[in-house]
Amino acid sequence: MAEARDDREAKEDAMRLSEAEIAVHWKEESYFYPNARFIGQANLTDPSVTERFAEKNFPECFREYADLLTWDKYWTTTLDTSKAPFWKWFVGGRLNVAYNCVDRHLGKYGNKAAIVYVPEPEDEAGQTITYNELYHRVNEVAAVLRDFAGLRTGDRVTIHMPMVPELPITMLACARLGVIHSVVFGGFSGEACGARIVDSGSRVLISMDGYYRSGKVIDHKANADIAVAKAESEGQKVEKVLVWRRFPDRSASPTPMVEGRDFVVNDLLKPHRGAIVPPVSMPAEAPLFLMYTSGSTGKPKGCQHSTGGYLSYVAGTSRFIQDIHPTDVYWCMADIGWITGHSYIVYGPLALAATTVMYEGVPTYPDAGRPWRIAVRLGVNIFHTSPTAIRMLRKVGPDEPKKYPLNFKCMTTVGEPIEPEAWRWYYENVGKGQAAVTDTWWQTETGGFVCSTKPALDPMKPGSAGPPMPGIYPIIYDEEGKEIPAGSGKAGNICIRNPWPGIMQTIWGDPDRFVKNYYGKYNRNPTSQDWRDWPYFAGDGATWAPDGYIRILGRVDDVINVAGHRLGTKELESACLTVPEIAEAAVVPIVDAERGRVPEVYVSLKPGMSADGVPEKVSKAIETTIGKIARPRVVRIVPDMPKTRSGKIMRRVLASISNQMDYGDITTLSNPEVVEQIRVSVQGKEKVATKAGPDDIKRFGETT
Ligand code: WT7
Question: Mean pLDDT of all residues in the chain?
Answer without folding.
Answer: 92
